[in-house]
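ugh ok fine here u go
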Amino acid sequence: MEFELKILGSASATPFQDRHHTAQVLTVAGTPYLIDCGEGTQWRLLEHKLRPQRLSSIFISHLHGDHFFGLFGLLGSMSLSGRTEPLQLFGPAGLDEVLTTQFRHSHTQLGFALEFTAVETTEHRLIFEDKHLTVHSLPMRHRVPCCGYLFREKPKRRRLVAERLPAGLTPAQLAALTLGEDVRDETGQALALNAAVTTEPKHARSYAFCSDTLYTETLAELVHGVDLLYHEATFLDDMRERAATTHHSTARQAGLLARRAEVQRLLIGHFSSRYRNLEPLLAEAQAQFPWTSLALEGSTFSVAE
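structure:
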């Protein structure tokens, strides 16, 4: 079952050459989840053959334009294409007001229900759940209310070993075994012990998206051990004072957080347009955490079960 992240944009506030504003798509078991929606996101989706109509959930980190200016156009195109299924939208309070104002003055009427949930950006809490995963908010420290998102697959069932199973078990009893239960008869006699007829479930995977933020050590606890961590790295560390002033992080700080969080892999992005060559940012992050990659446009990162 797939667990795959596609990068649509890696730029910070100002786009640069082939670097676009922030947007990512996480696909889990065929279900796509859009994370941020910078200007031009609908073009990026089409470019990478990702059908916007398949989106059922969108997660916006904050209300700086490079993270959500593409949303109005995307929603409008969905409606013009005949969408009728509801769409869930998550983001900081005020996003609904911005969209409502745009809709009112452009006389736009969506052909589908837009279900907005305001996310409390200062708290770590469950905000979304479906059959595949849970999503928790991650508090960021930025100039405006801002949050990241932690995506975790739901625990998977244990796997049955067919040759060890006794004959005659019902579907309900087999299901109980996959849930880690023993199967017994009316007298309490064991018909099948879970440990004897099943193996460990496949790994439940995880992805943490840390949007624009000052370096925050407490994030390491919230994202500890995730398979894939994205952390902004707007500047090199020689500009850490500039990073602090603008409430951003450096590549070194992103690597340091990944190391402290003991994650499996780090992706860095949100690069300042001052950097034509991104290799120095990669090298700086890798000095702290070797398993670091650049979150470049069109890149795909898969996590195995």
